[in-house]
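Teaching assistant's notes for section 4

Start the section by putting this record on the projector. Ask students to predict, before seeing the second block, whether DegT/DnrJ/EryC1/StrS family aminotransferase will look compact or extended. Collect guesses on the board.
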Amino acid sequence: MSQTLEPAAAPLPWNRPLIGEDEIASVVDTLRSGWLTHGPKATRLEDAARERLGVEDAFAVTSCTAALHLAFLAADIGAGDEVITPSLTFCAALNAMRQVRARPVLVDVDPTTLCVTPEAVEAAITPLTRAITVMHYGGQMCDMRAFRRLADRHGLLLIEDAAHALHASRDGLPAGSTADLSTFSFYANKVAAAGEGGLLVGCGELVHRARLLGRHGIDSSAWQRHGKRNTADYEVSVPGLKYVMSDLTAALAVVQYDRLPEFTRRRADIAAAYTSGLAGLPGLSTPVVLPGVEHGWFLYAVLIDPDTAPLDRDQVAAALQERHQISTSVHFKPVHLLGPYRDMVHRPLPVTERAGARQLSLPCFPAMTDHDVDRVIRAVRELWA
Ligand SMILES: Cc1ncc(COP(=O)(O)O)c(C=O)c1O
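Reveal the predicted structure now:
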């Protein structure tokens, strides 16, 4: 007698970009245009960001890390300066601080939102503090009105690392619209994905300086000079770097950027399904969205309390992978537990360390089907059964 076997479920990744025919047509158009580096498509992306955020200027660059590096360089932050930042973040902002020889000062996060708070930051201000770098954890925004007031009161530069929040807002203020400088990411797993890529936006004078620094200190782009004046007719006004976004990347980024409202709606639907489907599981906390926040849902971040849940975070991740072929991720291993930053902690970071041990990011991306979402909910519930 032949036996009917259940077909094995296809692996469900933690994240996968949603690339459509418009993105493909835009890239092909750029390939056929003969212009591959920063040019018309990157300029369109900068215009779209300026318009959406109401900021004075925008510069499309190779990555969010590049945007952060340029932000510190443009603001002349360097040796002897302190920059206050969360430890529950990706290492990019701290690496950029170290490149300019500034000193990261790490603070704890709020246990509900996992974002930094103005109170924690204010307590860490010293006479050496030059800047505050906030990070909108997972797409939930920090309280930017309060941070703006705090920065102004102390004469500090305010930077938003908005890598997770290309399409989020709080109290009507979009991420990236309040700080002196803000940075976004188009990395392959971000809410608008172009493989790599970043944006630096904000105050006109600072972005202008960043543009010079990110273009070898040259006062015009190759595209601006092309066909109009001798391509060798340029001046180098500062010793800069090369951080411009190519038009090949921008061809993809500009279409993804336009689709953010559609993507965010789908991410929010998935998040709502998880929140109701996972309600009531002992030891598992689902994300809380504060009043006034339009969450960007880069992450659907749950916290698993090993004292009250049947499994700890790592056991849940392993069981989802091994038994159900469902991938998850962790955001983040706190930066102060990583190599060059181990000696930097001068205050306890209990919320950060607890989150670092308990946080798990479930798959939450617009290419997921309703069936995929149900599959994750059933798999998690089964582990708790
Ligand atoms: C909070 C945060 N900032 C910055 C970055 C760096 O982005 P990119 O890869 O575009 O340099 C990341 C990347 O994951 C991130 O999560």
